[in-house]
Amino acid sequence: EFMQAFWDIEAAQDKAIQLLASFVRDKSALPYLLTFTELITFAMKAHADSLKIQVDGCSLLLEILSQALEQDVVVALDENVTSSLLETVRQHSENEELLSLVCTLLMMISASEVAAENLRKVGVIPDLLSILRNFLHNEQICLSCCGVLWSLAASENNVDQAVMKSAVPVTSAVLQEHLQNGTVTESACSALWALSLQGCFSENDYEPTTALLLDALRMNPERPVLVKNACLALASLLRLSEIPALRFITDSKGSGINLIKYAYHLHFDDPDVVENICMLINEIVQYDDVVLDMLSQKMEELLSEIKSSFPSS
């Protein structure tokens, strides 16, 4: 009632947000705090030029949503919330600290299909791409934005393919910039996989993207999620054209066949990784020229090993 009565007074809203933040550590308060999410975003929208309210409001929303996630509580956020966050992004497009908070929030809420659809409606993708271009060095921003792109591109709803196509070079730039950061690389690989499923790649993208995905595997072979994501993205590209297949076996830094052999031996006890490696191999063997190379590199030995370990495969 206090927040609603004094919605136009910045100091009142900020005090209320600070008071609510003091209750976040009390897990029993979560059901009550969830009812404040719209009021918090309304305060942010009403005082869009106040950096303090934006930072405090985003920090509080992050705490509430993180706790809800920990307690497996579903949070329903309507279009007003997503549009308010987008307004924050546009109003403070140069503030790296705030953008890092907002992008993390967007990633968390985009896991919900309804929220993802709301984000799509309010036109968030061009803003995400602009943020990525400006803050390519920021690991948290890159991680979060790629997570949102994955959610939007992986959706079954129709996507704006022209807008999504413009995400390919930006996502590739993220992968190139953060190859040594396994967490960011995982997120970028999953975004590229989703974009490939939506048919967002042009023929000119096939070879450089394949090389990047091989680099991701080469530098982070010990990370099972990354191996799964990279294999899915590579399989999707191989499904589209022989160009990625040829790059896969002739990459100047080493054959992709040796890479997936190594990845299998690291993760032979992880059925999900093995399944994705098999999916990738299945796409490779559709090209006769590549099969000859596979045979010359004794790929049949790996297949026999997989077959003996997973008889039903």
TrEMBL record:
<dbReference type="GO" id="GO:0004674">
    <property type="term" value="F:protein serine/threonine kinase activity"/>
</dbReference>
<keyword id="KW-0723">Serine/threonine-protein kinase</keyword>
<dbReference type="InterPro" id="IPR016024">
    <property type="entry name" value="ARM-type_fold"/>
</dbReference>
<keyword id="KW-0418">Kinase</keyword>
<dbReference type="InterPro" id="IPR011989">
    <property type="entry name" value="ARM-like"/>
</dbReference>
<protein>
    <recommendedName>
        <fullName>Serine/threonine kinase-like domain-containing protein STKLD1</fullName>
        <ecNumber>2.7.11.1</ecNumber>
    </recommendedName>
</protein>
<dbReference type="Pfam" id="PF25571">
    <property type="entry name" value="TPR_CCP1_N"/>
</dbReference>
<dbReference type="GO" id="GO:0005524">
    <property type="term" value="F:ATP binding"/>
</dbReference>
<keyword id="KW-0067">ATP-binding</keyword>
<keyword id="KW-0808">Transferase</keyword>
<keyword id="KW-0547">Nucleotide-binding</keyword>
